[in-house]
Automatic annotation (TrEMBL):
Protein's name according to its UniProt entry: Uncharacterized protein
GO BP, sorted A to Z: intracellular signal transduction
Biased composition (Basic and acidic residues): 183-192
UniProt KW keywords: Coiled coil
InterPro entries: Tuftelin_GRINL1A/MYZAP/CCD68 (IPR051375)
Keyword Coiled coil: yes
Domain of life: Eukaryota
Coiled-coil region list: 82-165
């Protein structure tokens, strides 16, 4: 009978080593996944702030572009009136030339603003895509972390059971606890 207990003790010790190693590996992977998740969340928040800043810039550029377009329309109307009244003198001619230069400058500025607006819109779209991709990665990592935590909790419960059996085998006079079925064993695992 003592030999039987000794054999059970040896088998329990052989099972305990790999379970502890696997438990340690799962703990290490859980810590790595948590660190990666925190870095990804930091990047996601930074990108969110940058997207908000770019959207504000886009709004102000759009307002400025609209204002300039209105000024161009008003200038063109005034220039049209001045062209019809060229016989009114050199002052009108000088004003007409100044308006033409101003309109040319405004049109160039509008062209530059439109290019800038399109470029910023492309950047915002790209940043939004990156933000969505980051959120997808974070959700996947959350799912992996939950799975790892469940596996760690299950292995910890198995380790406790093996440890209790080893303590009993090594010296407890009480009879061993009744063997649990697999379904009962799983019901005793506490998930965090």
């Amino acid at each position: 009978m003592y030999n039987g207990y000794e054999n059970m003790l040896k088998k329990s010790l052989m099972l305990c080593g790999p379970l502890q190693a696997e438990n340690s590996e799962l703990q290490r992977r859980l810590e790595e996944q948590t660190a990666r998740l925190q870095r990804a969340e930091g990047l996601s928040e930074d990108r969110g702030r940058r997207v908000e800043g770019l959207e504000r810039l886009l709004g102000s550029l759009a307002v400025e572009s609209t204002g300039l377009k209105e000024k161009v329309a008003a200038g063109e109307m005034e220039l049209g009136r001045l062209r019809e009244q060229t016989q009114q003198g050199r002052e009108e001619q000088h004003r007409s030339e100044a308006l033409e230069k101003e309109l040319a400058n405004m049109k160039e500025k509008i062209h530059q603003l439109d290019d800038m607006l399109k470029s910023q819109q492309r950047k915002v779209r790209h940043m939004i895509e990156q933000l969505q991709n980051s959120r997808t990665v974070i959700q996947e990592r959350d799912r992996i972390i939950v799975e790892l935590e469940e596996k760690v909790a299950y292995l910890e419960a198995e380790n406790r059971e093996i440890h209790d059996r080893m303590e009993y085998i090594s010296g407890s006079p009480d009879p061993p606890p009744p063997e649990l079925t697999e379904s009962e064993d799983r019901q005793q695992v506490v998930y965090r």
